[in-house]
From TrEMBL:
Keywords, sorted A to Z: Cell projection, Cilium, Cilium biogenesis/degradation, Cytoplasm, Cytoskeleton, Developmental protein, Dynein, Microtubule, Motor protein
Family named by the database record: Belongs to the dynein light intermediate chain family.
Compartment(s) where it occurs, according to its Swiss-Prot or TrEMBL record: Cell projection, Cilium; Cytoplasm, Cytoskeleton
Organism encoding this protein: Opisthorchis viverrini (Southeast Asian liver fluke)
Descriptive protein name: Cytoplasmic dynein 2 light intermediate chain 1
Signal peptide: none
Molecular-function annotations in GO: dynein heavy chain binding
GO annotations of cellular component type: axoneme; ciliary basal body; cytoplasmic dynein complex; microtubule
Main location: other
Length: 340
């Protein structure tokens, strides 16, 4: 998943661990004639959409200038795909709008406010033939579809639906789209096959380009049945076409925009889990993966009842701490403090 991609990007050889909330790491790379080191700051959000509000801590008046959002979507779970995408993109957009509203209200030099306004407009400047139909995401966006190796085992119609939907979303928001496979390791970060290695090398090259300014490698692949690779601006709506089975659904649709049309067709084919189902599922998977005490095969009634009481107490304390942390983060943002 995300942690493995980050480890590969930063050449880390230790085993990736589950992300509990919002993890921070950084990487350095020599650049230029004098071998000065550039630094990239990487934040990773864990537990799906449950802790999406923690994204607020990463987008600040200082970080927004070079901020890139890498959205990783699990291709093996189409019933979570649209809801996850919509929630996370919505959270980042809300934070972005909130940040610029506060900046405009503050007593800053006119030249600085002008730079912030230009930052918000630069993504809307395009010479692409579809420019009037696009809704560029306010910050640079890269979408990575993970577990592509599981997607290709599904029926061709399901593959087409998911791949074409990803292409539409990517183009509509002005992003770049790539896919990755599960990494079957022999040792450290050595891969079983060169084909799997190629996909990760492609993603690593993209991340190195945006983080350290290395030469861009624009590889375009849109064919169904092959790993998608679509840099920003390399696709178009005429090539993407209408959603699969659109004719079968059109009589039941009341869509007003292309985004609503794709959402209606995709969600009719893959009914999305609710927000509560998603947060509950993320908690259950995390508990079983990291806490053997949650495994039924180790049940001890007396011990488990005592543990449940303590867990409830801990949950209350955590909720209090989360509220306090959000208040502190909000105040820090108002004061212009970079939290990293």
């Amino acid at each position: 998943g995300k942690s493995t991609i980050i480890h590969y990007f930063l050449d880390r050889e230790d085993k990736a661990k589950p992300t509990l909330a919002l993890d921070y790491t950084f990487g350095r790379k020599s650049s230029g004639t004098f071998s000065t080191k550039s630094t990239v700051h990487v934040w990773e959000l864990g537990r799906g959409v449950r802790l999406a509000d923690l994204i607020d801590a990463t987008i600040t008046p200082d970080s927004v200038w070079r901020f890139h959002l890498i959205l990783v979507l699990d291709l093996s779970k189409p019933r979570e795909l649209w809801q996850t995408m919509e929630t996370l993109l919505g959270t980042v957009t809300r934070r972005y709008d909130q940040l610029f509203t506060r900046i405009n209200k503050r007593d800053l030099p006119g030249s600085l406010k002008s730079k912030y306004r230009e930052l918000g407009e630069v993504r809307k400047t395009s010479t692409h033939p579809d420019k009037d139909l696009l809704n560029p995401f306010p910050l640079p966006l890269i979408i990575i579809g993970s577990k592509y190796d599981l997607l290709v085992t599904q029926q061709l119609e399901q593959q087409k639906m998911i791949c074409k939907t990803l292409r539409f979303l990517n183009h509509f928001y002005g992003g770049s789209l790539y896919v990755s496979r599960r990494m079957k390791m022999r040792v450290a970060i050595k891969f079983v096959s060169e084909k799997e290695d190629l996909l990760m090398k492609r993603i690593k090259a993209v991340l190195n380009h945006i983080a350290f300014g290395t030469p861009e490698q624009r590889v375009v692949q849109t064919e169904v049945g092959k790993p998608l690779s679509i840099p920003e601006g390399a696709d178009c709506f005429s090539n993407i076409g209408a959603p699969p089975n659109y004719e079968l659904e059109v009589s039941r649709l009341t869509m007003k925009t292309p985004l609503e049309m794709w959402k209606a067709v995709f969600c009719a084919r893959f009914p999305q889990m609710t927000q509560n189902e998603l947060t509950g599922l993320n908690s259950m998977v995390l508990d079983l993966a990291t806490d053997p005490a949650k495994d039924p095969q180790y049940a001890e009634p007396l011990v488990d009842r005592a543990r449940a009481i303590k867990d409830e107490e801990l949950e209350r304390i955590q909720q209090q701490n989360e509220r306090r942390m959000r208040d502190l983060l909000q105040q820090a943002t108002l004061d212009g403090v970079l939290i990293a």
